[in-house]
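Exercise 7. Given the encoded structure of a 257-residue chain, write a plausible sequence.
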């Protein structure tokens, strides 16, 4: 039994691409099995010994990683057809052979690494940050109601991994939809006392081209989010807020809240 465990291997089929403009191809690898192995540790094993299943030396597989504990969002890829974090994808819970592909929504840099600039540009478009006036201490600031603080905390768990954009059918190369991550961050920052200073600008961005109207309510985003963020709830809340704001604008209200 011990001998059988020693000789057990895992087979990987990895979609590779040598450069952004080159053709993609598949390459198979077979590595020794270890208990509690995840996809990242398997890729690191391949990097240490870049020999494919045919016994040929090859270039090490390229991918992104950072924290290795599902916090940074860097290691997103498509694993057995599902976009997710490779650091928390345990080999024992995956069907063999394990298929690894880069996310299709973003341009490939090399192999499993993609350029997520589209997502970060969307976050810039909606001003997904809280403005500060210098670095001096402003004190504790205005308190938020506990009910609001609780759902705002859930939205703050976003790690910009891009999985929700990969799962969304409305985010593709033919559409300029900013995606669920940016929309959820609008709701988060509009809810904070300091962040609400840019509320009008954010609402103008999400009601404009590529904003709320591009959401098809497929709900793939909320089902795929590794942090369980209520993305569709945020989108629905923004839709209601956009409707109220449009009425206020039409009737000439001076109120922004």
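Solution.
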């Amino acid at each position: 039994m011990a001998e059988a465990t020693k000789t057990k291997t895992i087979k990987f089929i990895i979609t590779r691409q040598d450069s952004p403009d080159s053709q993609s191809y598949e390459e198979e690898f077979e590595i020794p099995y270890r208990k509690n192995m995840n996809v990242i540790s398997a890729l690191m094993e391949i990097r240490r010994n870049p020999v494919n299943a045919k016994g040929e030396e090859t270039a090490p597989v390229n991918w992104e990683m950072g924290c290795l504990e599902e916090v940074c969002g860097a290691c997103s890829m498509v694993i057995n057809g599902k976009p997710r974090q490779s650091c928390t994808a345990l080999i024992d819970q995956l069907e063999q052979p394990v298929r690894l592909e880069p996310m299709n929504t973003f341009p490939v840099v090399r192999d499993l690494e993609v350029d997520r600039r589209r997502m970060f540009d969307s976050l810039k478009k909606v001003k997904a940050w809280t403005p500060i006036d210098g670095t001096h201490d402003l004190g504790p600031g205005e308190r938020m109601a506990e009910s609001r603080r609780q759902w705002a905390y859930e939205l703050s768990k976003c790690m910009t991994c891009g999985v929700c954009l990969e799962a969304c059918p409305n985010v593709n190369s033919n559409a300029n939809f900013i995606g669920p991550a940016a929309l959820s961050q609008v709701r988060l920052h509009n809810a904070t006392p300091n962040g609400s200073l840019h509320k009008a600008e954010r609402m103008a961005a999400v009601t404009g081209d590529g904003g709320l109207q591009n959401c098809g309510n497929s709900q793939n985003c909320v089902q795929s989010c590794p942090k369980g963020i209520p993305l569709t709830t945020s989108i629905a809340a923004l839709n209601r807020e956009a409707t109220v704001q449009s009425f206020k604008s039409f009737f000439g209200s001076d109120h922004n809240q």
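Remark. The chain has two domains: 2-114, 117-250. Students should compare their own answers with the one above.
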